[in-house]
Amino acid sequence: FEAKWDHASTLKKVIDAVKDLIGDTSWDCTNTGMSLQSMDSSHVALVHVLLKSEGFESYRCDRNVSMGISLNSMAKVLKCAGNDDSVTLRHESESSVVNFAFESHKEERVSEFELKLMNIDTEHLGIPETEYDSIIKMPSADLRRTCADLSQFGDSVTISCAKSDVRFETSGDIGTGNVRLSARGSSDKPETEIAIEMINPVSLTFALKYLNFFTKAAPLSDTVKLCMSNNHPLCVEFPMPEVGYIRYYLAPKIDE
Amino acid sequence: MAQQKSIMNYFKAS
User: Model confidence over B2-14: pLDDT tens digits?
Assistant: First the structure.
């Protein structure tokens, strides 16, 4: 297995976006790309990352391999790469390590690191194809700010989607808060658009703690998609055009 | 009080 990115920045951001939610995980490498699927330790959220082979500078995977890695260790290794350095990952069949090579574009500095692989029992969950009742596309910075703001007032947020607006509400010991975002088009700046596709109105409650973990992916993508159906996990997708995506799934809080 | 569900209530091991 050998995969090379032209710039380390994307991989650094991907690891920063998931490492606090899932500690150790397996990267599944096939000839179509690298992916990981992992639950957080309390089994409330699920993370699915796909890095497509087309998104790499070069990519070769002769035999499918699952590499168990501590994401905190991977983050440490990647700290040693400059944002504009190229990154090459190499793993030989049966080897218990993965190699990282960072090269500056002027080629005057090359650094190499070897990370020990771990044996990880991963339980892959089947994610059923879902026709969502409401899909909201919005700037990822708006979602990050909304979740951060409401976290000051409560632990949970109720997200209610109607035809032309989406409302985020919370309440706690000191008071209540809500943020309403209205659909708005923008032909010259599609990344600032708020688009709502509503088949059925949806209202669901989620733990803000997890949403704040998810918005660590905001630096990867200008836009985010919230896919919701009543009594179903929320899917928060950060698309990376040409490269792949990070999808987070979060189980709702439900009144017993 | 709303109860936090597990993601495993919805997605089963494949």
Answer: 899 999 999 988 7
Angle at the Cα of A16 from the Cα atoms of A11 and A22, rounded to 5 degrees? 110
Q: What is the pLDDT of residue A188?
A: 84
Contact between A125 and B13 using a beta-carbon 8 Å cutoff: yes
Helix, strand, coil: what percent of chain B each, to 5?
A: 20, 30, 50
Report how far residue A205's alpha carbon sits from residue A200's, in angstroms, rounded to the nearest whole number. Answer: 16
Contact B2 A255 (CB under 8 A): yes
Integer Cα distance of A218 and A144 in angstroms: 7
As a whole number of angstroms, the distance between CA A93 and CA A65 comes to 8
Q: Which of B1, B6, B11 has the highest number of chain A CBs within 10 A, making it the mutation to test binding with A?
A: B11
What percentage of chain A reaches a pLDDT higher than 90? 89
- Interface confidence, given as ipTM, is 0.95
DSSP characters for A106-136?
TSS-EEEEEEE-------PBP------SEEE
Residue whose entry in the numeric block shows the structure tokens 């590499």: A67
